[in-house]
Design brief:
By secondary structure, the protein is of the alpha+beta class. The chain has one domain. Helix content is 19%, strand content 33%. A five-stranded mixed sheet has the order 3-2-1-4-5, covered by helices on one side. The chain is globular. It holds the Pfam family DUF2188.
Length: 78
């Protein structure tokens, strides 16, 4: 993958009592939501647009989901 193709992952993480959608390496969240489901919907669309990975954390900070929306290396046919 060339440097131009490199995209940053989209994260769903806590933001106080709310949920934030962030781009890896960015200080400010893209958007903040009251409900995690709303944050996940927004983050999924963003990850699809950017052809990158969506990573979601639980309130304790542990990763509970990773979905890739592009640049996968496919090792098997199908």
């Amino acid at each position: 993958m060339s440097k131009e193709e490199t995209t940053k992952n989209v994260w769903v993480t806590t933001h106080g009592d709310q949920w934030a959608v962030k781009i890896a390496g960015e200080a400010k969240p893209l958007k903040v939501f009251d409900r995690k489901t709303d944050a996940m919907e927004f983050a999924k669309e963003r990850a699809k647009e950017e052809k990158t990975e969506l990573i979601s954390q639980k309130r304790d900070g542990k990763i509970n989901l990773k979905d890739s929306y592009g640049h996968d290396s496919r090792k098997t046919k199908g």
